[in-house]
Design goal:
- By secondary structure, the chain is of the alpha+beta class.
- The protein has 2 domains: 96 residues, Phosphorylase Kinase, domain 1 (2-Layer Sandwich), CATH 3.30.200; 157 residues, Muramoyl-pentapeptide Carboxypeptidase, domain 2, CATH 3.30.1380.
- It is 30% helix and 24% strand.
- The chain contains 8 helices and 15 strands.
Amino acid sequence: MRKKTQLRTGRVVAGLFLLTACGACLLAAVSFFAACSGGQPSNPQPSDTGISFADGNSPDIVYRVLQKPDDDIHTGSLILVNNEISFRGSTGDAVRIYEHKNSTYYVKDKNVTVCPALMNPLNRMFADFYKVTGTDDVMMISGIRSIEYQRQLYQDELAETGLSTSRLVAKPGHSEHHTGYALDFGLRQPGRKYDGSGVYHWLNENCTQYGFIVRYPPEKADRTFIDGEPWHFRYVGKPHAELMQAKGFCLEEYIDFLREYPNDGPHLSVRASDGARYEIYYVRASGGTNQVPVPSNYPYQFSGNNVDGFLVTVEL
């Protein structure tokens, strides 16, 4: 009787072992084919900002090739401009904020201009700010600047400080204000300066949901070459602003980060705080005319980085 019991027990154990082994093999096979397909992001990394990101290439994107000249590296909302990298693009399609703004903020005069892409998110941000706080006294005091005007500002700053360089005013030709994607905020009341504190902290904290970043955080001064400026906002678009906030990147760091996602490798898969999905990849410029793959069946945003290549943001 004991021998029969031992025999039955042995068969059960053997059966369980075989079942476990088969399950492990099946799981490994599923994982292998999922990885090869590239269709699902791996290891999604959520953040407390509500955005998540991972490596992943959508199998649904159908690509076509655009011919892009090297000059296009210097255009778009993700171009990097700082004291080492000059602005070499154009802002010929600039618009006057005064002519397109809503009633929830002010503008210094009718001559403050920006790129058209800023106006809709800027109006939405201040409309929401007013709904939350009931405050409407923020003023746009500086948009696009000419190189000549920036040179005067720079020389005035050096004359005042007696220094040979400035960490507050960018060099002429190297200012974000040349791009059309930068704005300085002020306050309508005389003698008051915008510092992003108090009720205005809402703007500095939530601007990324509208595609804006605070360009010069004080803790990043060693990378940006500019001391902290809580009043200086830069438009980079969605989902880039939220992703920069989640990763704690300044723009210099973010441009470096995106090079890790080339068009012929794993792309960056992003789900923004509003649930919208994006796929981002980098295309290195090769000189002359560049072959840039872009989706033919999904909308996308295209920008140069003003350094060495192009960035494509697919809206899935």
